[in-house]
Amino acid sequence: MNLFDLTWPTIHALDRNTPVIFPIAALEQHGPHLPVSTDSLLMGEIARRAELALGDRALFTPLQWLGNSHHHLDFSGTLSAEPRVYLDLLCGLLENFITHGFRRLLLLNGHGGNDVPGKQAVFEVRQKHRKNNEHLLLFATYWNLVQEPHRSHPDLSQKVMGHACEWETSMVLRLAPYLVKSHTLVAPQDFGTPFEPATRGWTMPDRSASGHVGDPRAATAEKGEALFATFSEAAVSMIERMAVWDGTTWNG
Question: Tell me: the pLDDT tens digits for 201-217?
Protein backbone atom coordinates (compact mmCIF):
# COMPACT_ATOMS: atom_id res chain seq x y z
CA MET A 1 0.00 0.00 0.00
CA ASN A 2 1.13 3.53 -0.68
CA LEU A 3 0.14 6.37 1.60
CA PHE A 4 -0.23 8.68 -1.41
CA ASP A 5 -3.16 6.63 -2.70
CA LEU A 6 -5.21 6.24 0.47
CA THR A 7 -7.86 8.30 2.21
CA TRP A 8 -7.50 9.04 5.90
CA PRO A 9 -10.45 6.73 6.87
CA THR A 10 -8.73 3.89 5.01
CA ILE A 11 -5.49 4.55 6.88
CA HIS A 12 -7.38 4.89 10.16
CA ALA A 13 -8.92 1.46 9.64
CA LEU A 14 -5.55 -0.30 9.25
CA ASP A 15 -4.24 -2.73 11.85
CA ARG A 16 -1.80 -0.73 13.98
CA ASN A 17 0.70 -3.60 13.73
CA THR A 18 0.98 -3.01 9.98
CA PRO A 19 4.63 -2.18 9.21
CA VAL A 20 5.05 1.41 8.05
CA ILE A 21 8.02 2.03 5.76
CA PHE A 22 9.65 5.43 5.27
CA PRO A 23 11.98 5.28 2.23
CA ILE A 24 14.67 7.94 2.65
CA ALA A 25 17.38 8.94 0.19
CA ALA A 26 19.19 12.06 -1.06
CA LEU A 27 19.69 14.48 -3.93
CA GLU A 28 23.44 14.96 -4.39
CA GLN A 29 26.26 14.74 -6.91
CA HIS A 30 27.16 11.30 -8.21
CA GLY A 31 30.37 11.81 -10.10
CA PRO A 32 30.68 13.04 -13.68
CA HIS A 33 28.38 10.37 -15.13
CA LEU A 34 25.30 9.85 -12.92
CA PRO A 35 22.41 12.22 -12.11
CA VAL A 36 22.05 13.94 -8.74
CA SER A 37 18.83 11.94 -8.32
CA THR A 38 20.70 8.59 -8.21
CA ASP A 39 20.07 7.66 -4.57
CA SER A 40 16.41 8.62 -4.82
CA LEU A 41 15.95 6.75 -8.09
CA LEU A 42 17.44 3.57 -6.67
CA MET A 43 15.72 3.71 -3.28
CA GLY A 44 12.44 4.52 -5.00
CA GLU A 45 12.72 1.46 -7.23
CA ILE A 46 13.54 -0.86 -4.35
CA ALA A 47 10.62 0.53 -2.37
CA ARG A 48 8.34 0.14 -5.41
CA ARG A 49 9.29 -3.51 -5.84
CA ALA A 50 8.91 -4.22 -2.13
CA GLU A 51 5.52 -2.53 -2.04
CA LEU A 52 4.38 -4.58 -5.04
CA ALA A 53 5.52 -7.80 -3.37
CA LEU A 54 3.91 -7.05 0.00
CA GLY A 55 0.56 -5.68 -1.16
CA ASP A 56 -1.64 -4.73 1.80
CA ARG A 57 0.77 -6.24 4.33
CA ALA A 58 2.77 -3.00 4.65
CA LEU A 59 2.25 0.73 4.25
CA PHE A 60 4.84 2.77 2.33
CA THR A 61 5.11 6.53 2.69
CA PRO A 62 6.35 8.66 -0.23
CA LEU A 63 10.09 8.76 -0.77
CA GLN A 64 11.91 11.46 1.21
CA TRP A 65 14.41 12.77 -1.35
CA LEU A 66 16.17 15.32 0.88
CA GLY A 67 19.01 13.82 2.90
CA ASN A 68 22.09 14.59 4.96
CA SER A 69 24.60 15.35 2.19
CA HIS A 70 26.84 18.12 3.51
CA HIS A 71 29.94 16.12 2.57
CA HIS A 72 28.97 16.57 -1.10
CA LEU A 73 28.33 20.32 -1.03
CA ASP A 74 31.58 21.11 -2.86
CA PHE A 75 29.86 19.77 -5.98
CA SER A 76 27.17 21.77 -7.76
CA GLY A 77 23.59 20.58 -7.55
CA THR A 78 23.78 18.88 -4.17
CA LEU A 79 20.91 19.69 -1.80
CA SER A 80 21.34 18.90 1.88
CA ALA A 81 19.47 19.47 5.11
CA GLU A 82 21.50 20.67 8.09
CA PRO A 83 22.38 17.51 10.08
CA ARG A 84 20.29 18.41 13.15
CA VAL A 85 17.41 19.58 10.96
CA TYR A 86 17.49 16.27 9.12
CA LEU A 87 17.61 14.31 12.35
CA ASP A 88 14.60 16.23 13.63
CA LEU A 89 12.79 15.57 10.34
CA LEU A 90 13.27 11.82 10.69
CA CYS A 91 12.17 11.92 14.32
CA GLY A 92 9.10 13.88 13.24
CA LEU A 93 8.13 11.34 10.60
CA LEU A 94 8.27 8.55 13.20
CA GLU A 95 6.39 10.65 15.76
CA ASN A 96 3.62 11.37 13.24
CA PHE A 97 2.82 7.69 12.88
CA ILE A 98 3.23 6.97 16.57
CA THR A 99 0.59 9.68 17.07
CA HIS A 100 -1.60 7.77 14.60
CA GLY A 101 -1.15 4.67 16.77
CA PHE A 102 1.17 2.62 14.54
CA ARG A 103 3.80 0.57 16.33
CA ARG A 104 6.14 -0.96 13.71
CA LEU A 105 8.13 1.67 11.84
CA LEU A 106 11.13 1.35 9.52
CA LEU A 107 13.36 4.05 8.04
CA LEU A 108 14.54 2.29 4.87
CA ASN A 109 17.61 4.15 3.69
CA GLY A 110 19.31 4.57 0.33
CA HIS A 111 22.12 7.04 1.13
CA GLY A 112 25.23 6.47 3.24
CA GLY A 113 25.19 9.98 4.71
CA ASN A 114 21.81 9.25 6.33
CA ASP A 115 23.26 6.40 8.38
CA VAL A 116 24.26 8.36 11.49
CA PRO A 117 21.17 10.60 11.76
CA GLY A 118 18.89 7.69 10.91
CA LYS A 119 20.24 5.50 13.68
CA GLN A 120 20.16 8.44 16.09
CA ALA A 121 16.53 9.14 15.17
CA VAL A 122 15.27 5.66 16.08
CA PHE A 123 17.33 5.81 19.28
CA GLU A 124 15.94 9.20 20.33
CA VAL A 125 12.33 8.35 19.56
CA ARG A 126 12.61 5.06 21.43
CA GLN A 127 13.91 6.86 24.52
CA LYS A 128 11.04 9.33 24.35
CA HIS A 129 8.56 6.43 24.37
CA ARG A 130 10.61 4.18 26.60
CA LYS A 131 7.63 2.96 28.63
CA ASN A 132 5.85 1.62 25.56
CA ASN A 133 7.44 -1.74 24.83
CA GLU A 134 5.17 -2.40 21.86
CA HIS A 135 7.11 -0.02 19.62
CA LEU A 136 9.44 -1.51 17.03
CA LEU A 137 11.55 1.30 15.58
CA LEU A 138 14.10 0.30 12.95
CA PHE A 139 16.64 1.88 10.62
CA ALA A 140 18.19 -0.09 7.76
CA THR A 141 20.28 0.78 4.72
CA TYR A 142 19.21 -1.43 1.83
CA TRP A 143 22.66 -2.65 0.77
CA ASN A 144 23.45 -3.70 4.35
CA LEU A 145 20.44 -6.03 4.45
CA VAL A 146 22.38 -8.52 2.29
CA GLN A 147 25.48 -10.26 3.60
CA GLU A 148 27.30 -10.54 0.26
CA PRO A 149 25.50 -8.46 -2.39
CA HIS A 150 28.33 -8.95 -4.89
CA ARG A 151 27.22 -12.56 -5.28
CA SER A 152 24.05 -11.29 -6.98
CA HIS A 153 25.82 -11.53 -10.34
CA PRO A 154 28.92 -13.61 -11.24
CA ASP A 155 30.62 -10.69 -13.02
CA LEU A 156 30.35 -8.13 -10.24
CA SER A 157 33.88 -7.17 -9.19
CA GLN A 158 33.06 -4.67 -6.46
CA LYS A 159 32.57 -6.20 -3.00
CA VAL A 160 30.92 -3.28 -1.16
CA MET A 161 28.86 -0.22 -2.03
CA GLY A 162 30.82 2.77 -3.27
CA HIS A 163 29.56 6.02 -4.75
CA ALA A 164 28.61 6.34 -8.42
CA CYS A 165 30.38 3.01 -8.64
CA GLU A 166 29.89 -0.29 -10.50
CA TRP A 167 26.81 -1.06 -8.41
CA GLU A 168 25.02 2.27 -8.56
CA THR A 169 25.92 2.82 -12.22
CA SER A 170 24.59 -0.63 -13.09
CA MET A 171 21.30 0.05 -11.34
CA VAL A 172 20.83 3.41 -13.05
CA LEU A 173 21.65 1.70 -16.39
CA ARG A 174 18.85 -0.75 -15.64
CA LEU A 175 16.39 1.92 -14.57
CA ALA A 176 17.15 5.00 -16.67
CA PRO A 177 20.07 4.42 -19.07
CA TYR A 178 19.48 7.75 -20.81
CA LEU A 179 20.66 9.49 -17.60
CA VAL A 180 24.09 7.82 -17.59
CA LYS A 181 26.90 9.85 -19.23
CA SER A 182 29.96 8.01 -20.68
CA HIS A 183 30.53 5.81 -17.62
CA THR A 184 33.07 3.65 -19.49
CA LEU A 185 35.42 6.65 -19.70
CA VAL A 186 35.42 7.40 -15.95
CA ALA A 187 38.69 6.44 -14.25
CA PRO A 188 38.38 4.15 -11.21
CA GLN A 189 38.75 5.69 -7.76
CA ASP A 190 40.21 3.46 -5.03
CA PHE A 191 38.22 2.97 -1.82
CA GLY A 192 41.32 3.45 0.34
CA THR A 193 41.78 2.66 4.05
CA PRO A 194 41.00 5.89 5.95
CA PHE A 195 42.50 5.15 9.38
CA GLU A 196 40.25 2.13 9.85
CA PRO A 197 38.87 0.92 12.20
CA ALA A 198 38.44 4.53 13.35
CA THR A 199 35.69 6.60 11.77
CA ARG A 200 37.02 9.67 10.00
CA GLY A 201 35.18 12.92 9.43
CA TRP A 202 35.44 13.71 5.74
CA THR A 203 34.21 15.59 2.73
CA MET A 204 34.05 14.03 -0.73
CA PRO A 205 37.04 16.05 -2.07
CA ASP A 206 39.13 14.38 0.66
CA ARG A 207 38.50 11.12 -1.18
CA SER A 208 37.80 11.95 -4.81
CA ALA A 209 38.22 15.06 -6.94
CA SER A 210 35.65 13.79 -9.44
CA GLY A 211 33.04 12.86 -6.81
CA HIS A 212 32.92 9.08 -7.23
CA VAL A 213 34.38 6.09 -5.39
CA GLY A 214 34.74 2.74 -7.15
CA ASP A 215 34.92 1.71 -10.78
CA PRO A 216 31.84 2.40 -12.94
CA ARG A 217 33.44 1.17 -16.17
CA ALA A 218 32.25 -2.42 -15.74
CA ALA A 219 28.64 -1.48 -15.02
CA THR A 220 25.85 -3.13 -17.01
CA ALA A 221 22.07 -3.10 -16.87
CA GLU A 222 22.12 -6.87 -16.32
CA LYS A 223 24.18 -6.42 -13.16
CA GLY A 224 21.80 -3.67 -12.14
CA GLU A 225 18.76 -5.94 -12.41
CA ALA A 226 20.52 -8.62 -10.34
CA LEU A 227 21.28 -6.05 -7.63
CA PHE A 228 17.74 -4.67 -7.67
CA ALA A 229 16.33 -8.18 -7.26
CA THR A 230 18.67 -8.97 -4.37
CA PHE A 231 18.12 -5.71 -2.51
CA SER A 232 14.34 -5.75 -3.01
CA GLU A 233 14.05 -9.32 -1.74
CA ALA A 234 16.09 -8.40 1.33
CA ALA A 235 13.86 -5.41 2.05
CA VAL A 236 10.75 -7.59 1.77
CA SER A 237 12.29 -10.14 4.12
CA MET A 238 13.00 -7.48 6.75
CA ILE A 239 9.48 -6.09 6.54
CA GLU A 240 8.01 -9.59 6.83
CA ARG A 241 10.07 -10.07 10.00
CA MET A 242 8.53 -6.87 11.36
CA ALA A 243 5.04 -8.11 10.55
CA VAL A 244 5.41 -11.38 12.49
CA TRP A 245 7.20 -9.92 15.53
CA ASP A 246 5.35 -10.97 18.67
CA GLY A 247 5.31 -7.45 20.06
CA THR A 248 7.40 -8.09 23.17
CA THR A 249 10.63 -9.99 22.61
CA TRP A 250 14.09 -8.59 21.83
CA ASN A 251 14.66 -10.99 18.96
CA GLY A 252 12.91 -10.76 15.65
Answer: 999 999 999 999 999 99
